[in-house]
Amino acid sequence: MTNKDTNPSTTPASSLTDKEREAIAQMPYEEARDKLIQAVQALETGGLNLDQSMRQWEIGEALAKRAQGLLNDVRAKLDQAQAEQAANQATAGTQSNLD
Predict the structure, then answer these.
(1) Which parts of the sequence are annotated with region: Disordered (predicted)?
(2) What are the tens digits of pLDDT across the range 48-89?
């Protein structure tokens, strides 16, 4: 067994609370995107200590996952609508389309 396996400090705990994670999970895309931009700017500006930097990183990761998940949902809906439209094109203007 290595030190990594026995030392819990090698796997840092998240600094985000369940309440913060839930708030991010409920955010609309635009809010998640805007807060992600703020987190990135805070990291790029510098002046944060290590703990603050890690917290901004974790916030950014959670926000990025939320925004990407919302975009993926929209993409899936668009793909489904396009597939339905393509399927309906074969019968457009025919009697079977009216059934």
Answers:
(1) 1-25
(2) 999 999 999 999 999 999 999 999 999 999 999 999 888 888
Distance CA 82, CA 66 (A): 24
Question: What are the structure tokens assigned to 81, written together?
Answer: 């609508």
DSSP H or E stretch at residue 96: helix 95-98
Instruction: For residue 54, tell me if it sits in a domain.
Output: yes
Q: Is residue 30 part of a domain?
A: yes
| Both structure tokens of 50 | 């290590």
How many structural domains does the chain have? 1
Give the tokens for residue 87. Answer: 């399927």
CB 65 within 8 A of CB 32: no
CB crowding 19-36: b at 16 or more within 10 Å, else e: eeeeebeebeeeebbebb
Backbone φ, ψ for residue 59 (5° rounding): -60, -45
